[in-house]
Automatic annotation (TrEMBL):
Highest taxon, organism lineage: Eukaryota
Keywords: Acyltransferase, Transferase
Family matches, as InterPro entries: Acyl_CoA_acyltransferase (IPR016181), GNAT_dom (IPR000182), NatB_acetyltransferase_subunit (IPR051646)
Species of the source: Eutreptiella gymnastica
UniProt name for this protein: N-acetyltransferase domain-containing protein
Length: 190
C-alpha cells in the first residue's frame, strides 16, 4: 500500500477527536512513540483540547498528531509536549515542525506561558537535533525516565525547553541548563 507524499501546505490540521483514536494507530507504530491507553487520550481531550491536533492528508489519512497540556505555577507556567509524532512515510517534510509550532503558539497566545518543554529519549538523536534546530535546548537530563521493558533497558531522557516571549523579560531563565541530572521522582508533577 503506497501513500502519496503531501507537503505540509497540503495537509489539513484539525482538533483531535475521540473518533481519531480509531485511525491514528499507524502513526504510533514507532519505537520512539509512546502509546497510551484510551483513558489517557480522553483525559487530554477533556482537559486540554486546544493542544490536541491531528494532521491529515488530502485523502483523510492520519499523517501525525501532537498532544500536550499547560502546567506549572507562577514563573514555571508552561506548555508541555506530551507526544508528537508523524507517520514514517510523512517524515522529513516539515510536518513535525508545523505541529510543534502549533503547540508553541497555543502556549504563548492562549495560555501566556513562559516556555514549552518536552522529554525526548537520549538515544533519539534525530528528534533531539530537530528540536535543537527549532530553538530548544537541553535543560536537564532525567535518569531512567523511560521505564525498562521486556526488550529494552531503562533509558534517560533530555528535558528540552524553548523560551517563549514572556520569558524574555526574565533573561530566558527557564532554559538555563541544570548542571546535575535528576531522577523521575525529583520532577515537579502537576
Amino acid at each position: 500500500f503506497a501513500f502519496a507524499l503531501f507537503p505540509p501546505e497540503m495537509t489539513s490540521f484539525k482538533r483531535f477527536t475521540a473518533n481519531d483514536l480509531f485511525s491514528f494507530n499507524t502513526v504510533n507504530l514507532d519505537k520512539y512513540t509512546e502509546t497510551y491507553g484510551p483513558q489517557f487520550y480522553f483525559e487530554y481531550l477533556a482537559h486540554w483540547p486546544e493542544y490536541f491536533t491531528m494532521a491529515r492528508s488530502p485523502g483523510g489519512y492520519a499523517m501525525g498528531y501532537i498532544m500536550g497540556k499547560v502546567e506549572g505555577r507562577g514563573e514555571d507556567w508552561h506548555g508541555h509536549v506530551t507526544a508528537v509524532t508523524t507517520g514514517a512515510e510523512f517524515r522529513r517534510l516539515g510536518l513535525g515542525n508545523k505541529l510543534m509550532t502549533f503547540l508553541e503558539d497555543v502556549s504563548e497566545t492562549v495560555h501566556d506561558g513562559y516556555f514549552v518543554d518536552l522529554f525526548v529519549r537520549a538515544s533519539n538523536k534525530v528528534a533531539e537535533n530537530m528540536y535543537r534546530n527549532m530553538g530548544y535546548c537541553v535543560y536537564r537530563t532525567v535518569l531512567g525516565y523511560y521505564s525498562a521493558s521486556k526488550n529494552d533497558p531503562a533509558e534517560d531522557a533530555f528535558d528540552m525547553r524553548k523560551p517563549l516571549k514572556r520569558d524574555a523579560t526574565r533573561s530566558q531563565s527557564s532554559v538555563i541548563p541544570l548542571t546535575q541530572p535528576v531522577t523521575p521522582d525529583e520532577l515537579e508533577w502537576e
